[in-house]
Amino acid sequence: MSEKKLLEVIATSVDDIVQLNDSGADRIELVSALSEGGLTPSIGMIERAVEVSSLPIRVMIRPHSRSFRYSKEDLEVMVRDIRAVRGVGASGIVLGVLTEERWVDTEALAFLLAEAKGLSVTFHRAFDEACDLEQAFDTLLQFPQIDRILTSGGQATAVEGISMLGRLRQRSEGTPIRILAGSGLSEDNLADFLAATGVEEVHFGRAVRLEQMLDGPIVSEAIRRIKRSLQ
């Protein structure tokens, strides 16, 4: 495992992108509709974000928030979005697909990843709805393009999922996949969380926004404090 700990932060606008580049974040997840858990942003936003950012940007590929099960037409839309993301030069994508029985949908995943050549891939918190997280992890190892799993350990928050996150982190040793912990982390609980799990990458959303509001502006000093605590 690498020694450097990394901070990924959600952006919902180009203004967020500019501020995150000035605040010390390491990686950006670009989404729209944060109130729905994040959907695919417009191509115009993606293009401009890539133009102004020196940080790697991973773009959410999620056409709707109804579930993590997708129809044939949904998957066709997602493939076109992946193609567009690749075309504008973003570093990666964020996606997740499950079957009705809550297993990783390997057929749908293979279909999507065939269009993602050259992109880094995060499997997002659809992972937390899988019926067996450790088996889901092993399934995702079959897909070399996937290098991150964003997870709260199957619980509402990463702090509640701390035991599973520790096991997943151990399971990831010696594999291409890194565990990216997110949901419910804060400046106050981060140090204890990292010590307990050994996780090296963390994901922040509204916890770095003014008054922790989904539509609040990013607080740059909060990001700087978190980065100092990761060193």
TrEMBL record:
Alphabetized UniProt keyword annotations: Cytoplasm
Principal cellular location given in the protein's record: cytoplasm
Keyword Ligase: no
InterPro entries registered for this protein in UniProt: CutC-like (IPR005627), CutC-like_dom_sf (IPR036822)
Keyword Cytoplasm: yes
Superkingdom, natural source: Bacteria
Subcellular location: Cytoplasm
Family: Belongs to the CutC family.
Protein name in UniProt: PF03932 family protein CutC
Native organism: Paenibacillus enshidis
Lineage: Bacteria, Bacillati, Bacillota, Bacilli, Bacillales
Gene name in the database record: cutC
